[in-house]
Amino acid sequence: MPKSTWTPRQHQILDALEALFLAEGFRHLTIADLVDRLRCSRRTLYSLAPSREELILVVIGRLLNRMGVEAFSQAAALADPGEAVASYLNTGVTTLSRAQPAFIEDLETYLPTRQLYDRHVEIGLRVMGTFISDGIAAGTFRELHPALVAEIISGAAERILRPDALARTGVSWSQALAELSELIRYGLLSPGPDTGTAMCDTEQQERRHP
């Protein structure tokens, strides 16, 4: 059923399903489980999708669509290219940071949701590449390959969502996101005249005092 025709009650059920999936995953949940947990009828669930599998895709697709729209609208409103890239990344990572490991595992191991997620990632990479290209064209960012930089940023964002990666580095998720944003924002910046002069002065001193 198209989003525009969903009733307030259906939106409420979809919100509850999303919260349940993020907290527990979804592959183990049957329609009977959902009826019991949400205290709704089978008819209500089947009004959203004709099968359990399609219901899962509706819920996750709705989550990813909302995440993409919010990320783009917030980033596009920023004049600074570095802030735009960081904002676009932060919105997506912050949304998925609410998910428990069981959800991430189900998302990645269940083929239909993996394919759905991959399609959204491809869209996100193109959008981020556009923000990076705009920064390069404005002279704010270094002359780097936008698509490659977007892939690297996306890969880093996925890593900091993983508890094992955070445990190895000994930082919290919020710290990891803050540092990644800082790295992205300032790592992409094109060296200004002052930076270039400072680098030349340093090189000259090193040559004078080996």
What does this protein structure show overall?
Helices cover 77% and strands 0% of the residues. 22% of the residues are buried. Residues 195-210 have low confidence and may be disordered. The protein has one domain (3-191): Tetracycline Repressor, domain 2. Helix 7 (111-137) crosses helix 8. The protein has eleven helices and no strands. The termini are far apart. With 210 residues, the chain is mainly alpha-helical.
Characteristics:
single chain, 210 residues, mainly alpha, Tetracycline Repressor, domain 2, 11 helices
Write the layout of secondary structure elements.
Layout: H1 8-24, H2 31-38, H3 42-46, H4 52-76, H5 81-97, H6 101-109, H7 111-137, H8 146-160, H9 163-169, H10 173-187, H11 193-208
Helix pairs in contact: 1-6, 4-5, 4-7, 5-7, 5-10, 6-7, 7-8, 8-10
Kindly report the average pLDDT value.
86
The CATH topology comes to Tetracycline Repressor, domain 2
Report the biggest beta sheet as strand number plus sense, adding barrel if it closes: none
Strand content: under 5%
Backbone CA Rg: 22 Å
